[in-house]
Amino acid sequence: MRRLVATGMAGGLLATLACGLLPASAAADEPAAQPAPKVELVLDVSGSMRAKDIDGQSRMSAAKQAFDDVLDSTPPEVNLGIRTLGADYPGNDRKTGCKDTRQLYPVGPLNRTEAKTAVATLAPTGWTPIGPALLAAAADLKAGGDGTARMVLITDGQDTCNANPCDVARDIAAQGIHLVIDTLGLIPDSTTRNQLSCIAEATGGTYTTVQHRAQLTTKVKQLVNRSTAPVITPVATDGAANCADAPVLKAGLYSDRETFSENRWYRVDVRPGQELRASVSISDDRAVNAGYGVLLRGVTLHGREIVRDDEGGTGRTDAVSAGIRYPKPKADSDTPAETVCLQVGNSFSAPASVKTIPGLPVELSIDLVHSPDQPSDVAFYGLGRGWWLLGLLAVTGAVAGLLTGWAARWRMNSGRTS
Fold it and tell me: Please, which of 104, 230, 358, 371 could form a disulfide with 82 given CB 3.0 to 4.6 Å?
């Protein structure tokens, strides 16, 4: 009887092992865990941060309060650091003042109490060495591991040193370290805006003018959280003034620029049985008038509208998005693809003092997927591929255990009879 139990248990164990080993093998096929994303906040602590023009308090006080809120909400998977510029040297020697940048908190796992304590000690002091601070922050992030890197520069003025920070940003981009620099200007000065816009554009980042503490808090939080998203580098493209001259796009992510109230065209070939999914975002990276909209529509080569979406904004967000879906019915295999003309338009306007060149940043996403009525190549009866094999092995193991136990009992009974 013991042989019967042992044999039956062995058969059951085989089934268990067959079921247990496969998920481990399947897990091995899953992508490895990605390194932690890295963010360094670069804060201007120069003497001009004493000015009291943000909600009745100084720029420095507003920045400190915003940092406290940001540190409280930073995702646990983000390695965050803080660097200052102009925080230590109060003198008039330019050479010394232009070296005044230091890492206040190292890039790594965040200890919120230590980071807040470090920020609380800051007081507006010296010069505005933006270029040297960018170079030093880039080195901080490069040394902080292999994760994606993002720098957020918060300043209220132009670089007061000899280095052109826009050239510095271009040099950083040329290093190929895939570092994105976002810039936030605390005053709506056109010269400062041009310099900070140039820094951001050189690295694929964004520029935003900030005039209220809540706005500063929200924007920095948004940028820190954005670091956790998968990084996909858009492909630069140039939309045309009409569909006939428009570039033909495949599935992917694309970047372009549109001037205020402009329309641009792109083309996508959609095969029978595919569904076109397209979305566009246009960022207001400078001061704009409230009340604007973004249009995305698909039309045929003959001008007949197929699908459209238009979304409006009120000035409370830094981007407006629209999206469309167009399924192409299945047909004979020799049916040619249909060319869909995509029109991207905007109704942004701006005060007379705002420059309209370069145009507003446009990000266009194109995806071509199987139509819902076609079988997917990813799933089988509602389960991802590999699960059906798991079920088959489990059933096979169970049957093998039963057969082995039955055979053992038959042999025992035969032995007793003889």
Answer: 104
Q: Verify that 50 and 193 share a domain, yes or no.
A: yes
Query: Where is 15: in which H helix or E strand?
Result: helix 2-29
CATH number of the domain within which 216 lies: 3.40.50.410
Strands (E), 284-376: 292-299, 305-313, 319-327, 338-346, 360-370
pLDDT of residue 374: 44
Residue showing tokens 């900070």:
196
Asked if residue 153 and residue 18 are part of one domain, the reply reads: no
CA distance 282 to 173: 23
Residue 145, in any domain of the structure: yes
The pLDDT assigned to 130 comes to 95
Contact 220, 41 (CB under 8 A): yes
Torsion of CA 98, 102, 108, 112, to 10 degrees: -120
The residue among 201, 226, 251 that closes a domain is 226
Instruction: Return the structure tokens found at 49.
Output: 């941060």
**Which H or E run contains 105?**
strand 101-108
* Exposed/middle/buried for residue 37 (C-beta within 10 Å: 0-12, 13-18, 19+): buried
Supply 264's token pair. Answer: 């641009």
CA 135 to chain centre: 23
Residue 196 and residue 184: Cα distance in Å, rounded? Answer: 8
* Whole-prediction pTM: 0.56
CB-hemisphere CA count at 13 Å for 282?
28
Residue 247: domain span: 235-370
Q: Evaluate whether residue 111 is within a structural domain.
A: yes
Q: What is the pLDDT of residue 388?
A: 41
Q: Is residue 214 part of a domain?
A: yes
Give the whole-angstrom CA distance, residue 159 versus residue 98: 9
Amino acid identity for residue 118 in this structure: A
> Is 106 domain-assigned?
yes
Beta strands 149-155; 38-44: pairing state: parallel
Report which of 243, 308, 310, 241 is spatially closest to residue 282, judged by C-alpha positions.
Answer: 310
Mean pLDDT by 10 residues, the chain (418 residues): 39 41 45 80 96 93 95 94 95 93 96 96 94 94 82 91 85 83 86 87 85 91 86 84 96 92 96 92 83 94 94 68 90 84 95 85 90 40 36 51 56 50
* One domain, residues 81 and 111: yes
CB 185 within 8 A of CB 207: yes
